């Protein structure tokens, strides 16, 4: 099958999977666990949880038998109106699986790219293994050049849904990645490399005193996703990167069909 228990990384995905569980009217396993550290829920892939949907028990009878320290596996539970709940891992329940959609059709992106809405996305982090990091990591300008060599550009995020999708793509390998933003022209005024202003933002303030000590915003003019959120970094730092290009597969198919019709009409005449 080539799938895993579902790992939920956006509000849209959360609502979709919840509805899926509700349609079966039964408690369903998903891919979370806090077995390593009680109360610290992670996906079985090792990725941290960026969304949460736990709901406290209200039934006195259920509270009486609740043992959180032994309930290390995550389910969408019918007992809490199909919200999340930690449950004994050996319980027998339905389950929801998830796998990459690699179907090849006229709307699909090129091999190695992932489709979202009208664009295709490529993450350098999918290349090879940890021993090849040195070869795939680029500074921001090098990353942009790599994307351009693929007929693309560093990803430019213009909607909340696209933001969530690219964040999820970045977190698959738990690595920091360049995207196409810069405030090189004017400090604090973030623009995409194409020249369009940044309309959605996902910056998270630096709170670690040690990191604050070395933070130099005026020297950090290029945009990356670090730990799931945006961070301005020195453009010469080498990271993985995410490219974006418009999906033209459907347009190519249409033009081929039109060309075929034109040829047929010429033959008839």
From TrEMBL:
InterPro entries hit by this protein = C-type_lectin-like, C-type_lectin-like/link_sf, C-type_lectin/snaclec_domain, C-type_lectin_CS, CTDL_fold
Signal peptide feature range: none
Instruction: Note whether ATP-binding occurs among the keywords.
Output: no
Which Pfam family, any one of them, does this sequence belong to? Lectin_C
Residue ranges of every copy of the C-type lectin domain listed in the record: 1-98, 116-244
Report the PROSITE patterns cross-referenced here. C_TYPE_LECTIN_1, C_TYPE_LECTIN_2
The protein in question is named MRC
Q: Which organism is it from?
A: Mytilus edulis
């Amino acid at each position: 099958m080539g799938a895993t228990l579902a790992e939920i990384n956006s509000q849209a995905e959360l609502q979709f999977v919840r509805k899926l569980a509700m349609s079966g009217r039964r408690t369903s396993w998903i891919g979370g666990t806090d077995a390593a550290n009680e109360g610290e829920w992670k996906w079985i892939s090792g990725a941290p949880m960026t969304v949460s949907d736990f709901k406290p028990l209200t039934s006195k009878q259920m509270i009486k038998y609740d043992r959180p320290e032994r309930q290390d596996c995550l389910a969408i539970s019918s007992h809490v109106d199909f919200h999340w709940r930690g449950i004994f891992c050996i319980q027998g329940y339905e389950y929801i699986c998830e796998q990459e959609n690699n179907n090849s059709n006229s709307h699909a992106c090129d091999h190695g790219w992932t489709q979202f809405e009208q664009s295709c996305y490529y993450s350098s982090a999918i290349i090879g293994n940890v021993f090849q990091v040195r070869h795939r990591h680029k500074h921001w300008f090098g990353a942009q050049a790599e994307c351009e060599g693929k007929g693309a550009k560093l990803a430019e995020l213009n909607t909340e849904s696209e933001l969530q999708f690219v964040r999820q793509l970045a977190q698959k390998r738990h690595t920091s990645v360049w995207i196409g933003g810069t405030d090189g022209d004017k400090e604090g005024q973030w623009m995409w490399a194409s020249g369009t202003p940044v309309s959605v933002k996902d910056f998270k303030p630096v709170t670690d005193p040690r990191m604050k000590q070395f933070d130099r915003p005026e020297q950090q003019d290029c945009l990356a996703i670090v730990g799931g959120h945006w961070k301005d970094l020195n453009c010469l730092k080498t990271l993985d990167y995410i490219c974006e290009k418009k999906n033209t597969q459907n347009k190519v198919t249409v033009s081929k069909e039109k060309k075929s019709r034109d040829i047929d009409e010429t033959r008839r005449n």
